[in-house]
Amino acid sequence: MSNKSQPSFQVAFALFLAIVGIIAVGSAVLGTSIHVLLIVALTLTCYLSSQLGYSLEELIECMARTIGQSMSALLVFILIGCIIGAWIHSGTVPALIFYGLEFLPPKYFLPAGLVICSIASVVTGTSWGTIGTVGLALLGVGIGLGIPPGLVAGMIISGAFFGDKMSPISDTTNLAALTAKTTIYSHIGSMLFTTIPAYIVTLVLFTLVGLGYSGAENVDAAEVALIQEVLATEFDLNPMVLAPMLALLTMMIVRVHTLPAMLTGVVVATIVSLVFQDASLPSALTAINEGYTNKTGVEVVDALIVRGGIQSMMYTFSLTFIALSLGGVLDQVGYLRVVVEKTIEKIKSAASMITFVLFSTAFSNAATGDTYISIILNGSLYGDTFDRTGLDRSTLSRLLEEGGTMTGALIPWTSTGAFITGTLGVSTLSYLPYCFLNIINPMLSIALAYIGIITFRDVSRIVAAKRADAL
């Protein structure tokens, strides 16, 4: 592919406008499935790439390479589906919902849930794992307490992504530091200046919003009692059914890789199903693939527990697969790089640079559909520029997280957005207004940059960059 033509800025920019137009008009006006719209965008991108000299085989190779780089995330999709199905069948999720309704009053549910998700994600280093386990249970509790699902989902996402961003064992945290060529400690230290204030504001907001659900009029006591009664009838809710969750947390605390740790959670849940729920082996294994399917006849309870399984993740899996294919071509043919390199020439101030990198990373997230690709691409694009302007590499790594990690949940067709919708059953538009941390953190970063508070500089890199230019 070394002899292929580079796309011009005009062509690359026009392509991005076309992709945005296809998705916006197709979804908002025509009501077309995002899958079909992404395929249309992919077809257009491949056609333009063929005019640059790329063969179909080479374009497929671009897609395959990107999908291969994201294989871990795709496997996590499958295992999350397995966990949800197995943990409901074993009584783990029903027990968490039962006891949550018992001990979490509506007045404190939102701030308490935020802290619970934050702790779980910091300890485990994974937002997806937190959302698919603790988050799913909290969603059930919140619905039982009469709190809108979109609001509960926004709280779960805010807490889960705080840990994903700040945990030293998070994959995106380490990837951002590695890509920006800074230490993990410098990276986390840089993020503290924007993430902690944003988190405090988020906690205050959820506390204030939670006060609106503190009165008895917001809680149907009879419905709560009905939910608990049905769950207690359908499942053995003794404390031992929490073993799958404890097993998963233990594996992640001792830093076992996410995939075997999640698989352990599925295996332990299957054993719990056999021992405590009097389930047959075929039914326990079926739940892993098809989810929990035994309806209770009570609609509000069935909405909470009839879900999960590998098959429930196929919508998300296929959407991510197509988005990654599109992102692979956009990245490796050079459309993203051309637009960024042309635009960055006009940036003069440090605050403008910070703002541009943040938006560039978020845009790459939307264009490629994957946070990992966005972080790697933008980290490699801006490293030398940060050295020349004297901005510390820890500022770059922080922006990669604020523009990449934090925005993934807000875009329906990214792997993260699709995962959340598929797991919680809440649409992106429903939860987006309540993802306070994900929205406030990038905005605060831009505001502080223009004030001049967090534009960290590294004089040694300025000198080194000037010497390199002189040579």
Structure description:
- With 471 residues, the chain is mainly α.
- The protein folds into two domains: 212 residues, no CATH class; 243 residues, no CATH class.
- The C terminus is likely disordered.
- The longest helix has 28 residues.
- Helix content is 76%, strand content 0%.
- The relative contact order is 0.15.
- The protein has 24 helices and no strands.
How are the SSEs placed, and which strands pair?
Blueprint: H1 9-28, H2 34-51, H3 56-69, H4 71-89, H5 92-103, H6 106-124, H7 127-144, H8 149-166, H9 171-180, H10 184-211, H11 221-234, H12 243-253, H13 258-276, H14 281-290, H15 299-305, H16 314-333, H17 335-344, H18 350-368, H19 371-389, H20 393-405, H21 415-424, H22 428-431, H23 436-451, H24 459-470
Q: Which terms would index this structure?
A:
single chain; 471 residues; mainly alpha; 2 domains
Q: Poorly predicted ranges (pLDDT <50, ≥5 residues)? A: 457-471
Question: What's the assembly state of these chains?
Answer: single chain
Radius of gyration: 23 Å
Number of strands: 0
Strand content: under 5%
Overall 3D shape: globular
Structural class: mainly alpha
Please describe the biggest sheet, giving its number of strands, its sense, and whether it closes into a barrel.
none
